[in-house]
Amino acid sequence: MIKKEIVAMLLAGGQGSRLHALTKKTAKPAVPFGGRYRIIDFTLSNCANSGIDTVGVLTQYRPFELNSHIADGSAWDLNRIGGGVYILPPYMNQKEGTWYRGTAHAIYQNIDFVDRYNPENVIILSGDHIYKMDYSKMLDAHNEKNATCTIAVIEVPWEEASRFGIMNTDRNYRIEEFDEKPEKPKSNLASMGVYIFNWQKLRSLMLECAANKVEFDDFGQNIIPLMLERGEAMYAYPFGGYWKDVGTIESYWEANLEIIDPNHPLKLQDRKWVIYGEPLLYPPQYISKTGQVENSLVMDGCKVHGLINNSVLFPGSVVGKGAVVKDSILMANCVIEPGAVIEKAIIMPGLTVEKKVKVGDGKTIKVFEG
């Protein structure tokens, strides 16, 4: 039997309903981001850069585009013998056949997959966030404290703390309380949705709950409180880097425009911690004599004949002469015809904005669906 120190289980079945048009036809982790990536690329790249070579990707909502994007995992060097990346949709077995009812239930339905690798630990990840993180350092902290569970946390503004699972810890970061979206939070240490569990303890607890018909569908609602109640060694792992939940149109737009800044903490140009994605099969970008690009990201295959300011252009987009694109995101293969004005907007893939049409008022974010 293969023996792994750690296996990753990446939860990628989210519907992302607050992203509205962006997730009508695809799962949230497959939503394009930053000109050439998908949201899930950040978590998969973190795994590859952290030395985690076995990843189960648990899909559910509209998985086709996500599955096609991940393929055999070669973009992240995860097409390995004795490891690799695996797509794990819900399935029917002799005991049950249901949709994943929650984060923990999704792991429970895939116990057999994890058991194939007999790992000491399992790291539970989300495909919904933009960040760089070395999971191997978190694993070292987990092992040093002989923890049953270690939860990555980040300080959030106090006014936003009620949106998250909040950790209340002692001075050594041992978790004393876990409050899921508390009305009056006692701390601003928010869960990042990154958990490392001792696999045998998590496995035994889930099987026990299933046998006794005790609800265990969700880590935040069920598993973590139950482990705390039983006195398990549970620790918070403070993370000091950039982390963003792009779960709303506003946060998605903001995160895309933030990475234009060359001093942004993600440092997408950093060759020591590369964010990988599927290869781009487009010709080079073209900026004509009338084209002007200011503080923007313009991907391969784009043709610019107008003004681009503080914007992100995905591959294959065309901006006509006299057109203005400001504080906006153009998804792949958009056409902005001459004289059109785009301001503080997101243009969906493959759409055309006709001549002299204005999209957006520069105040609220407009999603253009044609």
UniProtKB/TrEMBL annotation:
One of the protein's GO biological processes: glycogen biosynthetic process
SUPFAM superfamilies linked: Nucleotide-diphospho-sugar transferases (SSF53448), Trimeric LpxA-like enzymes (SSF51161)
Keyword vocabulary terms for this entry: ATP-binding, Carbohydrate metabolism, Glycogen biosynthesis, Glycogen metabolism, Nucleotide-binding, Nucleotidyltransferase, Transferase
EC number: 2.7.7.27
Binding site for alpha-D-glucose 1-phosphate: 100, 165, 180-181, 191
Catalysed reaction equations from the record: alpha-D-glucose 1-phosphate + ATP + H(+) = ADP-alpha-D-glucose + diphosphate
Taxonomic classification: Bacteria, Bacillati, Bacillota, Culicoidibacteria, Culicoidibacterales
Site label Could play a key role in the communication between the regulatory and the substrate sites, positions: 60, 99
Highest taxon of source: Bacteria
Pathway: Glycan biosynthesis; glycogen biosynthesis
Species this chain originates from: Culicoidibacter larvae
Similarity annotation: Belongs to the bacterial/plant glucose-1-phosphate adenylyltransferase family.
Domain Glucose-1-phosphate adenylyltransferase/Bifunctional protein GlmU-like C-terminal hexapeptide per the UniProt entry, residue ranges: 289-361
Alphabetical list of NCBIfam families matching this protein: glgC, PRK05293.1
Record's subunit section: Homotetramer.
Protein name per Swiss-Prot or TrEMBL: Glucose-1-phosphate adenylyltransferase
A molecular-function term among this protein's GO annotations: glucose-1-phosphate adenylyltransferase activity
Domain Nucleotidyl transferase: residue ranges: 8-259
